[in-house]
Design brief:
The chain has 321 residues and is α/β, with parallel strands linked by helices. The chain contains eleven helices and eleven strands. The chain has two domains: 145 residues, 3-Layer(aba) Sandwich (D-Maltodextrin-Binding Protein, domain 2), CATH 3.40.190; 96 residues, 3-Layer(aba) Sandwich (D-Maltodextrin-Binding Protein, domain 2).
């Protein structure tokens, strides 16, 4: 009987010793990082930066997988269906996490319950800009022109953060411009430089070289503080129009039900990476400000942006498709 007692004790002890080992087993293979947009865009760049920084810290590579389409919904749906074991993540952005529920009649997932927030990677402000010969150098002067006559405006796409921020701006001014929705930033910026439209709102990164070269003029940025890349351009808040932005932001989320230990480890690694000067410099090249914070603070941001998007979609008169 003594040998049986010793065997039972060894089994119990082995179980206790194995528990931490099992807890440390994650990640046991490469981690998929799904991206809902094509390679080369800001969302993809943020994903590849996160993969570069986090892979060595987590002990397994993060493999970026682009699944573009439906304003990010295809990749988000794939992430929502994935096994919640910590080996599949989604590069979260405003579309699938906050905006699309107001733009689509049906969604392949419920953005409020399908994902577990991990952490905020970065925020990219929107910029209000005008064609070079438009007599407006401040937001107030643009508002006066908007009130005084029908201006032409554009956005890089219906339902983008630029379009919705513009809708909030026009509602605050109490005047409307004739809106043209483009298929991306490049054709919109081309028409703005050519004078086919008078002003536009977009994420700061695409037009930044044109603004620096004087081919376009910035009158306001939507961030809480001025951008270090355009230090002489005041914020919308500074010019008496606070709270009018639907922000462009990038984050990491996981399928709902992902173990809290995995969420915590990724969040800790992300925050550590974002404190590094080289990471901040890389983000600055994309006109982005480093994020960070807790899963709870990311969840609060998503709720705030969802509410702002709902109001902006209604103001813009966008009908779900």
């Amino acid at each position: 009987m003594a040998w049986m007692a010793r065997r039972a004790l060894l089994a119990a002890t082995g179980g206790l010793l194995a528990a931490p080992a099992l807890a440390q087993a994650w990640p046991s293979r490469p981690i998929r990082l799904l991206v809902g947009f094509a390679p080369g865009g800001t969302t993809d760049i943020m994903a590849r930066l996160a993969a570069e920084k986090l892979g060595p810290m987590l002990g397994q590579p993060l493999v970026v997988e682009n699944l573009p389409g439906a304003t990010g919904n295809i990749a988000a749906a794939a992430a929502a269906r994935a096994e919640p074991d910590g080996h599949t993540l989604l590069l979260g952005s405003p579309g699938p996490l906050a905006l699309n529920r107001w733009l689509f009649k049906t969604m392949p997932f419920d953005s409020r319950t399908a994902f577990a927030p991990i952490g905020l990677i970065a925020v990219v402000p929107n910029v209000v800009m005008v064609r070079p010969d438009l007599p407006a150098r401040t937001l107030g002067e643009l508002e006066a022109l908007l009130k005084g006559g029908q201006l032409r405006t554009g956005s890089p796409g219906v339902g983008t953060t630029g379009h919705l921020t513009n809708a909030l701006f026009q509602a605050a001014v109490g005047a409307q411009a004739v809106h043209a929705g483009y298929r991306g930033s490049v054709p919109m910026l081309t028409d703005l430089m050519a004078g086919h439209i008078d002003y536009a709102v977009d994420q700061l990164s695409p037009p930044l070289p044109l603004l620096r070269d004087g081919k376009l003029r910035a009158v306001a940025v939507s961030s809480a503080q001025r951008s270090a890349l355009l230090p002489n351009v005041p914020t919308m808040d500074e010019q008496g129009r606070p709270g009018l932005s639907v922000t462009a932001w990038f984050s990491l989320v996981a399928p709902s039900g992902t173990p809290a230990t995995a969420i915590s480890r990724i969040n800790t690694a992300l925050n550590a990476a974002l404190l590094r000067p080289e990471t901040r410099e890389q983000l600055a090249l994309q006109a982005a400000t480093a994020g960070g914070g807790t899963p709870e603070s990311l969840a609060a941001l998503i709720r705030t942006e969802e509410a702002a998007a709902q109001r902006a979609v209604a103001l813009a008169g966008i009908q779900p498709e």
